[in-house]
Amino acid sequence: MSAVVEQVVQARLILSAQRSALLQVVLRYRADDPLAVRMVFPAEYALDGPADTPELGDGGPVDPDTGVEWVFARRLLTTGVDRPAGPGDVHIRPALDRRTVVELRAPEGVALLHFPTQDLRRFLWRSHLAVPEGQEARYLDPDRELAELLG
Predict the structure, then answer these.
(1) What CA–CA distance (Å, rounded) separates 98 from 137?
(2) What is the pLDDT of residues 90-121, one digit of tens each?
């Protein structure tokens, strides 16, 4: 059985200069996909969702099975908590007040989120316990990956 690291964290979705919404995000790491991390957001916060802006609130619990999932490199998150990183659709950078900014870009728009850096570091630490940094290749299964692609 492959190790799975999962952690629920609270993030602040920046809606405008004056408005934001709190929401719960599930961070997930799987040893059988050792190069990637996943962020799962409540479905109502999808960039291609309804035009109504989510109301301010606690964001409620996110259902990992029905939420919106973004997948990106674990190394990007590891780098981004200390210095700006991300040449593609995901940009991560440190911010003031012990926060980390995650910017997600899609054709439908841009989502700007603030996370407590300590929560991200704790998640990364746990993921590195499951698969040490630099040892990811030992956990890759190219035959399984090819079978999934050709599925």
Answers:
(1) 32
(2) 999 999 999 999 999 998 889 999 999 999 99
**pTM as predicted:** 0.81
5 token code pair: 């690291």
Say if CB 3 and CB 109 are below 8 A apart.
Answer: no
Whether the CB-CB separation of 5 and 111 falls below 8 Å is answered with: no
The Cα–Cα gap between 29 and 4 comes to 6
SS3 assignment, position 35: coil
DSSP string for 102-145: EEEEETTEEEEEEEEHHHHHHHHHHHHHHS-TT-GGGG--HHHH
